[in-house]
Amino acid sequence: MVGVSRLSRVLSWVASALVGGVYGVAGTIAHSQTWGPIPTGMIVGAIACAAILIAIRVLTHDRGAAVAAGLGMVGMLLLISGRGPGGSVVVENTLAGQIWTYLIAAIVLVVIAWPSFRSVPVATEAEK
User: Fold this and answer.
1) pTM of the predicted model as reported, rounded to 2 decimal places
2) Are 56 and 66 in contact (CB under 8 A)?
3) How far is it, in rounded angstroms, from Cα 40 to Cα 46?
């Protein structure tokens, strides 16, 4: 029984890392999109990345799954940030590129570091 539980946990980490990687790639590609002076790509990408991290953390009740998703996001961001084989650059060394890099790292850290309130006892009317 323990093996099945451990296997399902590892598989959830792998799935979380893959989902985080997909969101990281999508947000990284879209981060430079603007609508006039409004960085719509960065706003939508940050909201999407934060939402999937929060959803993984809340639904799995496992900080490890959120860590895996965060590593997938940041890992894919770093992987596609460099100069590609054709010479293209997805994340340029501009203010927007630097903000995007630090924003994703900050979102991942906040979601992972957020305390778990699951173990906090809840007082009922009968106990008061």
Assistant:
1) 0.84
2) yes
3) 10
DSSP state of 119: T
**CA pair distance 114, 50, nearest whole angstrom:** 13
Read off φ and ψ for residue 89, nearest 5 degrees: -125, 125
Could you tell me if 54 and 111 are in contact, meaning their C-beta atoms sit under 8 angstroms apart?
A: yes
Tell me the pLDDT tens digit for each residue of 80-113: 888 878 877 778 888 999 999 999 999 999 999 9
User: Cβ distance 26 to 45 under 8 Å?
Assistant: yes
CA dihedral 20, 15, 13, 6 (to 10 degrees): 170
Q: What is the pLDDT of residues 26-35, one digit of tens each?
A: 999 999 899 9
